[in-house]
Amino acid sequence: MEPVEELVRVRVPDRTIEVRVHGVSGTPPQALLGAFPVRVAGDADAGFYRAHDAGTSGGIAEAFSWGGLTSRSRITALWLFLAPLSLINVAGWMTPAHSLPERGAPGADRAPRSRASTVRDAAMRVVTLVATALIGAVAVQAAASVLGLMTADAPLAPGRAAAMVLLAALVPAGLHALAKVGGAPDDRDRHDDPWGRALALRSLALAHLGVALAVIALVGWAVTLDGAAAASPGAVVAAILVAVLAGAALAFGVAAVLGTRVAGPDAAHPAGGPAAVVGAAAVVAAAVAAALREGASAAATGLTVIHFVLAASAVIALGVASGAERRMPVRESAGFSVVFAALGFFMSYSAFGALSYALLASGSDRSVRAFVEAPAPAAMFRLVDFAAVVLTCGVLFIAARVVGEARPLAHPGDLGVDGATRVRRAVELAPVEVRRAGLGMLIAAGVLVVGELLRVSLPGGQWAQTVGRLVTEPRLVIGAAGWLFVAYLVVRACRGRRAALMVAAVTVAGVGSLGWLLQRAGFDVLSWARVDRAGQGAPVDGLDSESNASQTVLGGSSPLDSEVIAATGLGDPWVAASGFTLVAVTVALFIPAVSVLWFVLSASGNRESRRGVGVLWDLTNFWPRLHHPWAPPPYSETAIPALERRLTDLRTDHPSHCIVLSCHSQGAVLGFPAMRRLLADDPAHASALRFLSYGTLLSAHYQRLFPHLFDDARLRALDDAAPGRWIHLFRETDPLGHSILALGSASRQASHTPPRGVEHVLTHSSYGYSPEYQRALDDLAAWKG
Description:
The chain is mainly alpha-helical. It is built from 26 helices and 8 strands. α10 packs across α12 and α15 crosses α19.
């Protein structure tokens, strides 16, 4: 076992038990205790540990190590495929409203809900349904690509059509099974918090499974329509059966999803189970209907239209939710749910794009380079490339704003105090910058929808086609504008150091000059970023009509190209745009896809690697899956009841001891609902329980993002239930630790001066090194009420 740093030893007062709960990254128990640990309760995933000599003198220190819930098993590596759904699920919880009255309080059952709140919740539910439908459509396309149906010139064989439908149905079935691995919802329905709603979760999961299967049945059957011969009577009957069953499954599924409740008594919606059963029947009917088609062919155009319809539906639903949130009580929290859901969709389309590029390029007769430069079908990959470019620009904007606020190149000050303070300020502003970037991404998606509608509605208008292509084709204006975000990031990163900015400018100028000289010497160094112009608008072999139409704008002799060439003097005005698009495709599609596959197949065998990725799940998997059931299982549904049971057992086994729940960072987010549950079950717990939190975001990010669960009223309610028994510590150099104003003087500032032997300022960790920690622990142990 590696040695543990403990330069300042915390002394637990006599007749006191301190239960220490770590934050993200799965801090091992020996680091929490500063000694060799022995497990006294729980299991390897979520266990309680004491030092081997605990109880020999003074009080008892106990550590709750819950990191194994998100990083111990190799199966958690597969959760990376569910990351977009995790964001969408988190978005559903970001309701910009005040907390509801406590269960049992006067008028709690009759608490009114505003119309804006009802509209917002319904719109976010529709967003989750669109995400599930997207999974179904992608599953059909992946199955068609694997079976060689997307690029085949020959008619679609009936057997392969049926296999495509059945193979696609395995995707939602697999996600449904994967989401059940890990996590154990607490079935006890006696709390007013959202955890422990097993019945609602079960029916919601079945409803989404039914919706996905219905979409697969409809899409799998519909994409084989093009080129089909005259339908036989059996095929007509099968088609009618598919439509009826799929429509019924969708109706059941939508009713169950919209009817799921996150508050009040836990209950399963009666339509959830029938949705899954009827959806499975629809898949079987679709497979039979596809098998009865003779001479049908796979229709890439049909899939492209379906993807566009889903994207438009998501944009409309998110727009409705955004408008409703602007009319809800907590205006400063409006927009965050829309942003997180939009990020989830952009990540979904990035994953879909990586899959499409890999499968369709491998089945294409052209080289991989030629396919990437001009992918086909063009309309589908225009949507994929657009998502990659916008997602990359959004990430660059967020990075520029946060890095610029942190000013990493500026002088850090004595012991790094100034640098730590700037990082704290940057982290504090990060949610606002993420909201700005997300709203910009949503606006860009809306522009895409309007542009495509303009092109479709006015096919004969040259101006409509030109404008539509300019705003929807990522290898034109949008791609070229991406370099502005790169420049913005460089400028912001060099804040505080003009010399660094000058070096960056000289480097860019030098690289550009070198490229120009090589170009003059006859070396076409930018050929990788050029779209084939040899035909000057003539059809290029291997491309569909949509691709060749795009070639007119990208490489043809359109008036627009001539004007730009005359204005810039460049031989190809869209080299920069194509270059940024290919960079964005690589960064947003290929690198994440390769990294995920590498982690799942290789690095997931290393526990330290799993702990690193587990940080992502520590931050996103806290919330129950009551908005999208295919998000990774929440560790909170295991950790909170385990912590609640342990505190109850300690109080029973040590009736004369004071029990201090000591929570750091994300651990306080677990400790807060556990304390609320215990005090709600038995107010007598207040005489023995104490709460010490430090370095937490309860009153900052969590209160801003989830006000209905962490607003001042709820924070004060816990303090009122146990007056004087909650002390909170924060540092001005801690980027994640903020004061809790609702606690008043009980929110204390801790020193950031390091102990002897430490040459850097104290920031987010090692709160025990600050003397205020020992003082707070002593005060809680001595408090008599």
